[in-house]
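Late entry, written up from scratch paper. The run itself happened at the end of the previous shift, but nothing got recorded in the book at the time, so transcribing now.
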Amino acid sequence: RFITFGLAPNKKRLALHGSQPTSAPSEVRATRKAGFADVFELTRLPLGIQKTLELVLLLPLGALVTALFRNIIGVMTFGTFGPTLLALAFIFADWKTGIAMAVVILSVGLLVRHLIDPLRLLLVPRLGVILTMVVVSTIMAVSVTDYLGWTTEGQSVLLPMVILTGLIERIFTTVEEEGTGPTAKRVGGTLIVGFCCYLLLSSKTTGHLILVYPELHFFTVAAMVWTGRYAGYRLSELLRFADLGEKMATPGERRQ
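Output as recorded:
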């Protein structure tokens, strides 16, 4: 394990720094004596599992990006994992299909949420109604895209549908509690942070590096701890109260 965590040279892991993950031939793995340290060698897994694990291992980095934007910069989002999940939904689809599905799902979902609001339903049935109408409208949108000759994969529809359905309820609740302006800022912040998370999650180089050296997430945890203990001013607050600081300055300080 001392070697596996990169504290000493490891020829096998260093040889895996290519742009694509590799898997050792079955003959080589069969002749090599298996040891407990092999459990920590993720590159021995089949290629299909490796690609999935690369994406999963990048999720903590997405959460770190969101935490930095929220706690250091001061960008408000819908939840800590909302931007990361939103980026994950677009990973499995091209950006055109993703944007089209997002517009359809959010438009129909918010409309349905507004129409059923007088019924005063409980949370779970309310989400069920929204999900049902979103499913029906999404299926029709898929049929329309197929009629127009656009190829749409099932997974490119499933993830945005599930993730955005939960986001619809949060958007509508925020509008009622805080108003349209703050909600629009949160939506904009979620989209900005989600785009940054998308760039990170779509990086094959970063994903493969984390797959080869998963212990790098110790630095992710350290960065999370530092971000969580940060008690200074956010960048947005410095810009927001810049004029106030000038007004509070004494006349002598202003002349200087």
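The chain is about 70% helix and 0% strand.
(Scratch paper discarded after transcription.)
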